[in-house]
Amino acid sequence: MSPREYLTSLLADARRAVVFTGAGISTESGIPDFRSPGGIWSRMKPIYFDEFVASEEKRREAWTRTFSGTMRWVGAKPNKGHYAVARLIARGRATAVITQNVDNLHQESGVPVSQVVELHGNASYATCLDCGLRHELEVLKQSFLGRGEIPSCRDCGGLVKTATISFGQAMPQNKMERATQETLGCDLFIVLGSSLVVYPAAAFPLMAKENGAKLVIINREPTEQDDFVDLVIHDDIGPILSAAVPPD
Ligand code: ZN
Known about the structure:
Elements: H1 3-13, E1 17-21, H2 23-27, H3 40-43, H4 49-54, H5 56-68, H6 80-90, E2 94-99, H7 105-108, E3 116-118, E4 121-128, E5 134-135, H8 137-147, E6 160-164, H9 173-185, E7 188-192, H10 203-210, E8 214-218, E9 231-233, H11 237-244
Parallel strand pairs: 1-2, 1-7, 2-3, 7-8, 8-9
Antiparallel strand pairs: 4-5, 4-6
Helix pairs in contact: 6-11, 9-10
């Protein structure tokens, strides 16, 4: 059986698959991998959570980055890989998408919000750090660019930040617990576009494997966990997954 045929057969047999995605699925939508050489963190310093909270200057810098499009999150569209994942969810083959991405593209491709577990948050909106109220970026952008106002909460006056998990900010405990539950409940764990170097997120594939699930990795580059898998394919995700989960 060829790797592609084996992938199709594993997906056909799955009853409770879990999909785990990293930057590699979104590079196919034109979003750069921040951690790669030439990626954004090799060109500009990340702003740590404590700096954001402590310094108005850092907050201004963070919002300038957000609204100048430096991060290239805005305007990207889901690609074939995202849509194939959405079909796995819609057909009841997969129960959840655990993602390291903050680009909202799984939701945009049609995966219900309740089935996306965002380990690093979401960059497409902002929240109040004090009361949690959601703020839309378009509204904040107007007062920031128009009047130079650094976003604050319209309800409680607290600091507002994009809903991402910043460097130096704790991983959200409820998301980690949900991801663990999904991982332990799955019969097939599919890694898409992650080099599996960032812990604790990178622990999930082996957790699934040790719990008896099949493990598949599709990633352009070799990963730390290639030796432990049932199937590894080093290629682009969109064409491979789309062929294995074709549209109706
Ligand atoms: Zn608030």
